[in-house]
Amino acid sequence: MKHVVILGAGFAGLELASRLSASVADEVRVTLIDQNDGFTFGFSKLDILFGSADAAAVRIPYRELAKPGVEFRQERITAIDPASRRVTTDAGEYDADILVVALGAEYDVAATPGFAEGGFEYYSIAGAERMRDEALPALKGGTILIGVLGQPYKCPTAPFEGAFLLHDQLVERGIREATEMRVIAPMAAPVPVTPEVSQRFLDELAARDIEYLGKNRVVELDVPVKEAVLENGERLPYDLFVGIPIHRVPAVVAESGLADNGWVAVDRDTLETPFPDVYAVGDCVSLPMAKAGVFAENAAGVVADGVVARLHGETLGRRYEGEGNCYLEFGSGRVAKVEANFLGGPSPTATVVGPSEDLAAEKAEFGSSRRKRWFGA
Ligand SMILES: Cc1cc2nc3c(=O)[nH]c(=O)nc-3n(C[C@H](O)[C@H](O)[C@H](O)COP(=O)(O)OP(=O)(O)OC[C@H]3O[C@@H](n4cnc5c(N)ncnc54)[C@H](O)[C@@H]3O)c2cc1C
User: Fold this and answer.
1) What CATH number belongs to 2-105+249-320?
2) What residues does ligand 1 touch, defined as CB less than 6 Å away?
3) Phi, psi torsion values for 223, nearest 5 degrees
4) Which end of the chain is more exposed for a tag (fewer CB within 10 A), N or C?
């Protein structure tokens, strides 16, 4: 039996483990390793932030994982040697016949001076809870800056979803007119997959009187005077600063030599790294496309097909297209969807569908179907 070791049980790792379990449970044994005791969908952080769910309610414990041929280990990975496919954790060592790195992206909050002390974020569960409990109740109006602190970052729509939902909350609280909202980001236009998608976001922001300052980046917070310092030296005062932190690969991936250019280099068709029998998938990879769970999931499907093809002495009959449908919160319970394909043609394609209440139901179904597929027996 071949031993497949999957590092990281997020969107990519869970999808890959369940696909291998469904198709070749009698031909491979899968070890799935993650430091956490449960999985939380990225979009649940918006539910935590705006109070409709608490963290425990949206966490799916890995102990519920019941997949034939898959063993889950809650351990912290401390070293990866891609040449020998040996993985070291805080509890032991694993030798893989096929190694898959699906460790996602982590946040470098310290890379923006003053951000940890003077800013808030909702990209982590702890950050969303802190912003919900400390920043939002204290807000009485003034200026809110939402700053995208670097690229690439997860879920290109999430800073704007946060802005739309925050706008709604301020309207409900009767303080929106006393509040100025601005989004500052390095992209010339929001969600720049296509000009049409960007324009849709610009229109939605304008309809809510939220200013978009593109080609700008906050590089520091001057906390005592509550001013955000831009790359060009300009200073913008704020009452509440919300940042999308700078992203990077987890330290263990950086130290493995797999990510010499910042992110893990892979063949864009097959997700293979330059090391034999080592794949990388999900947010940790370096591909010219957005980072999001739906793309990680589809990439994991291609890796699963690639592994099965090799087990059977065949060649992979398809290639990764960087495709997926991302749901996005427009506020007032309405959900829209961006249908995107980054790598399938000569240039990326994307369309915004909705918003509608039907799509809100479709998003809920998206979550529950993954829970069933990844955790059910
Ligand atoms: C606010 C927000 C909203 C979002 N909304 C959406 C959305 O609507 N749709 C969508 O598709 N995507 C969304 N995303 C993005 C989505 O969550 C990520 O793109 C997705 O989780 C990436 O999957 P992944 O498997 O690559 O990484 P992850 O899901 O992050 O999984 C990586 C795993 O590796 C583990 N790990 C890391 N280092 C170690 C280590 N040293 N040892 C052991 N384990 C380790 C982590 O614990 C983690 O479980 C959103 C993200 C945010 C922050």
Assistant:
1) 3.50.50.60
2) 8-13, 33-36, 42-43, 45-46, 76-77, 102-104, 122-123, 154-155, 158, 250, 252, 282-283, 291-294, 296, 326-327
3) -65, -45
4) C
